[in-house]
Design goal:
The chain has 19 helices and eleven strands. The chain is α/β, with parallel strands linked by helices and 448 residues long. The protein has two domains: 58-167 and 326-393, Periplasmic binding protein-like II (D-Maltodextrin-Binding Protein, domain 2), CATH 3.40.190; 170-324 and 403-445, D-Maltodextrin-Binding Protein, domain 2 (3-Layer(aba) Sandwich), CATH 3.40.190.10. The strands form two sheets. Strands 1, 2, 3, 6, 7, 8, 9, 10 and 11 form a nine-stranded mixed beta sheet that branches. Strands 4-5 form a two-stranded antiparallel ribbon. Helix 2 (69-86) links the parallel strand 1 and strand 2. Mean pLDDT is 86; it is low at 1-41.
Length: 448
Amino acid sequence: MLKKALSVTLMMGLIFTTACSSGGANTPASTSKDSGNAKPAQPAEAKPEAKPEPKKGKFIFWDKSEYVKDYNDFQKERVAQFSKEFNVDVEYVAIPPADVKTKLLAAVEAGNPPDLLLADDFVAKQFVGNNQLMDVSDILKQFDFREDSKKYAFAIEGLFEVPVYHSPNVMYVRKDKLEEKKLAPPKTWEDVKNVAKAINDPKNNFYGLGFQLGGGGDSDGRINNLIRSFGTDIVNKEGKVTINTPEAVEAIKFDASFFAENLSPQGGITGDDAFNNNLWLAGQAGIVLNSSSIYAAMKKDKPELLEKTLIMPWPAGPKRQFGSGGGTVFIMFNKAKNTEAAKQYIKYFFDKAYYGKLLEKLNGLAGPVLNGLENTEFWQRPENKSWFDATRNIVPLGDPGPPDARASQAVSENILSKGVQKIVVNKIDPQKALDEMEKEFKKIYEKK
C-alpha cells in the first residue's frame, strides 16, 4: 500500500510539474524573437471578490438587565464574539426583571419565544408545568455544577433549567447611624424595628427602613421570611397550604406596621424591586434587605457610603431564622427556532475564564454555580468570601413545598405583598387579609 501511495504521489507530482513547464514556455510577446507577429499581452482577468459566507440563521437571546451595568455590557461583548466565531446573527435583548414575565407570556402565546432566556429561577419555573421548556439533562452533564446549584434545575416534571449564578441577599445597616444613637446592630426582626424607630428622620428625608410593597421578589421575599421566622410555613412538604395561623397574622401585622408608622417612605407602598436600591444609594435609608447589587454599586460609585455600611445576615424571628436569595438560570423553549445556537452559546458562556470574569464584574452579586471557582484569588478575598459563603444557605423557593412551578406562580402574583398593601392602604383587618391570602394560595396549590 505504501509503494502504491508513493507511486500515485509521484505521478501527480510529474503531472503538476509538466503543467507548470508548458505554461512557462509561453513567454511574453516582448521577449519573443518573432515579436513582429506576436499579439499584445492581454491583461489578467480580474477575479470577482469572494462573497462573505451567509450567516447561519438568527439566534435570539433575552437576558435580564442587572442593576450593575457592567454585567450587560460584558454580556454584549461576549455575544458579539459568539456571533463572529460561529457566524450567527445574534439579537441580544436586556429586559428589566419586572417586565420579563409579561413580555415572555406574550411571546410564548404568539408562538415566537426567544431561543435562550436568562432569568430568575422563580420566573423560569412558571413555564415548566405546561410542557413549554426543553429538557436540559444533556447540558447539565457537560459541566461540573455544585450540588447546591443543581436544585434550580430540578422540578417534579424533570430537568429544565441550567443554573447560571446564585444571588444571596443580606441586610444592609447604616453603621454611622448606629454609632450616633449608640445602638447595637440589629439581629432580630424586633431589633430591626427598634433601630428603625431610633434613627427615623422623615423631616430630613431619612427613613429607618427602605422597604417596599409593590410586588416582585424583594417585597414578597421579605414577607415570606417574616411569616416563616414567626413560625409558619406557607405550604407543607406535600404542597398543602398552611399559612393561616395566629403566628402568620402577627407577622403580616408586623410588616404592615413598617409603613403605617412611617418608618419606610410612603412611595414604598407601590415601590418595585429597584426602590430599595435607589433609596439606599441616595443615602436616605437606614436598613434595607437586598442582594449584593447595592454592595457592587457602592464599591464602584459610592465608596464613602460603603465605609458607613454594615453587612449582616437576615434577621431572626421569634421562632426561626432563614437565609434569603435565589438563583438565575438559562431556559430554552420547545417552540424556539434556533435552540442549537442556544446550546452552543451556553457552552461558550461557561468557558471558565469568561465566566469567572463575568462574576467578578458583578462584585459578589453572583455566586458561581460551578465547582472550583471558590479557590480563585477573587473569591478568597475576605469581602468576597463572605458573599460566597452566603450562597450556601439559600432556602429554595417554595420551601418546604414540592419543587415545582407553583411557588413561582405565587411569587409572580404578589399574593403576600398585595395582602399587606390592603392592610396598609385599605385598613382591612389582618385576619381578613390572611384569609384572602390563603384562598389565593389554594387556587395555585390546591386548585380551590
